[in-house]
Amino acid sequence: MEEPVHVRSTYNDIHNIIRGAADKIASEFKPDMFIAIGGGGFFPARVLRTFLKDPSTKRNIPIQAIGLSLYESLPGTTVEQLNGEVVRTQWLGPDPGKRLLGRRVLIIDEVDDSRKTLQYALNELQKDVEAELQLLPESERDSKRTEFGIFVVHNKLKLKLGKLPPNTPYYVGAEVEDVWLDYPWEAVDIEEHDRMAKEDKEKTA
């Protein structure tokens, strides 16, 4: 079997990609909460918070975390699955819908590959909000509805198995071919990772 093409990104690469997307997210979506999908969404969420502030308070945007896994086996974990593949390992705690009501929530991950993880995250968060809305008087529900958007550092240009509602605000740092993306936070030897990333850039220069 042929070895897949690897594309390595450094921390500086990721930082600059996120910086390039921040202004559009700030002007169009104006999020007041981030939900990072662990573990790949944690670093991008923190970097994005450097460039975006809560539009109403001008303070740091809070970052919440959820844990989903599509690629690793997690024996012994209590899971909820989509098509037997997306594994829920961490959620927002009790009454998650309460903390989401009326917010503009940006869901953040490092890569949109099959789109199954993003589909699962959005669907489940929307269910949490809808369950909470049903506890409110009908006259208050519209003003408390949560708006969700999505940001990924990389979007792979490939057929997607998951689907998102067509009106979902969707932001991408960089479009890439269907290659194997090596992120710096996955590296054991970060100096070697950066060295190889530099070699890759020199080959394509």
Please sum up the structure shown:
By secondary structure, this protein is of the alpha/beta class. It has 6 helices and 9 strands; from the N terminus they run E-H-E-H-E-E-E-H-E-H-H-E-E-E-H. Mean pLDDT is 90; it is low at 76-83.
Topology overview:
Elements: E1 6-8, H1 11-28, E2 33-38, H2 42-51, E3 63-69, E4 81-82, E5 86-90, H3 96-100, E6 104-112, H4 116-133, H5 138-144, E7 147-156, E8 170-176, E9 180-182, H6 190-204
Parallel strand pairs: 1-9, 2-3, 2-6, 6-7, 7-8
Antiparallel strand pairs: 3-5, 4-5
Helix pairs in contact: 1-2
Keywords:
single chain, 205 residues, alpha/beta, seven-stranded mixed beta sheet, two-stranded parallel ribbon, 6 helices, 9 strands, globular
Structure description:
By secondary structure, this protein is α/β, with parallel strands linked by helices. The protein is 36% helix and 25% strand. The protein is built from six helices and nine strands; from the N terminus they run E-H-E-H-E-E-E-H-E-H-H-E-E-E-H. It has helices at 11-28, 42-51, 96-100, 116-133, 138-144, 190-204, and strands at 6-8, 33-38, 63-69, 81-82, 86-90, 104-112, 147-156, 170-176, 180-182. The protein has a seven-stranded mixed sheet, with helices on both faces. Strand 2 (33-38), helix 2 and strand 3 form a beta-alpha-beta unit. Helix 1 packs across helix 2. The protein is globular, with a radius of gyration of 18 Å. The model is unreliable at 76-83 (pLDDT under 50).
